[in-house]
Amino acid sequence: MNNWLWGLFLIALTVCLSAIGCSEDDKNPSNSENAIENPFALEVGNWWIYEEYGADDVYQSWWWNEIVDTTTVDGKHLFLFNGVLPGRLHEGDEGLYFYDRYLEELVLFWKFPASAGDTYYSSGDYPDHYERTTEVISTNSSITVPAGTFDDCYEYSVTTFIDDEIPNYYYLKYYFKPTIGLIYRSQIQSSNVHVQKLERYNNIGGELSPESNEFADRHWNEEVYRGFEYWLAFVYQQPGRNYLGSFEDWQNETWETKLNYLPTWFTNELSLDRTNKYYIFIGLYTMQFGIGWEGAHDNWDESDPWPFYQAYFTEERHLYFSNEYLDQYLDMW
């Protein structure tokens, strides 16, 4: 089995667990009332944002994860979350479990409560035979990420052996804070490095403040964004692969169809309703939605906005968005 399939499997597993973050800091409200009853912060409406880094700690992208619903499988209550890939989580007798859709059973991922030195194993045969060993390294580790410094975290080390055509080992590390969830995750496989660090979260299922929504309503123009999205679909791809329908036709296309015509940095569908996620997306994904912010679309030539757009989205301008508009917006949470 190709390595990329196993990498995808492990990323899917991690995203399942990304719906559960680590300690209190000055950006986020406390949730002490759930310290015993809800150690994994499993509640519909909770969300977490992670920054992803590659080798040499180079920033790559964002992850957005949200618990959106619940379901029951074989009498077990599972929490469903929407993120990079879907996942299902269950709080059981020994800790946090994920539902393995290939094995069709719950598998222990984080033992909790636990003691340093506790070790446990799991294995399976899909898509190839694998063996996973998890060790609790510490129950009081500290780590600093963009969201702040988190103390008293559980630290887990996971080694996964995959009996592929060329046997491979994946080495993963997780920092978990009870009542908050996953704060840090790293994966190393050969020379490939992936790291996710918690940027901010809301583990009480709340909405953004009215002030932040009003700020976005004043300074972000949805019509400009949707017009630019359509314009890109018409011109971005090579001749013969560009979108030829009308603007009205474009609005009725599914997001999956639209992705065939848009640049790869278009990753999130913007809802028609101004929901909590709507406001977070337009402030978070500046490469996709930045054109709608006041200043980015001033005085552009609507018949050919591309030169203006390229000039505006230099690295310096992108940092300007991140440090100015984005921070103004997010600091109002």
What does this structure look like?
- By secondary structure, the protein is an alpha+beta fold.
- The chain folds into 2 domains: 3-202, YmcC-like fold; 210-330, no CATH class.
- Helix content is 26%, strand content 34%.
- The protein is built from 9 helices and 12 strands.
- The chain has helices at 3-17, 210-219, 222-235, 247-252, 255-258, 276-284, 286-289, 306-312, 315-330; strands spanning 47-53, 59-73, 76-82, 87-91, 95-100, 105-111, 119-124, 130-145, 148-162, 168-177, 181-189, 192-202.
- A 12-stranded antiparallel beta sheet has the order 6-5-4-3-2-1-12-11-10-9-8-7.
- A hairpin with a 3-residue loop joins strand 10 (168-177) and strand 11.
- The longest helix has 16 residues, at 315-330.
- Mean pLDDT is 77; it is low at 1-12, 21-35 and 306-333.
Low-confidence stretches: 1-12, 21-35, 306-333
**Total separate domains:** 2
Give the structural class: alpha+beta
Return the average pLDDT rounded to an integer.
77
Computed CA radius of gyration, to the nearest angstrom: 21 Å
Q: How do the helices and strands follow one another from N- to C-terminus? A: HEEEEEEEEEEEEHHHHHHHH
Helical coverage, percent range: 25-40%
Spatial ordering of strands, largest sheet: 6-5-4-3-2-1-12-11-10-9-8-7
* CATH fold node name of the largest domain: YmcC-like fold
**Total number of strands:** 12
CA-based shape? globular
Give the number of helices. Answer: 9
Task: Considering the chains and any ligands shown, give keywords for the structure.
333 residues; alpha+beta; YmcC-like fold; twelve-stranded antiparallel sheet; 12 strands; globular; disordered N terminus; disordered C terminus
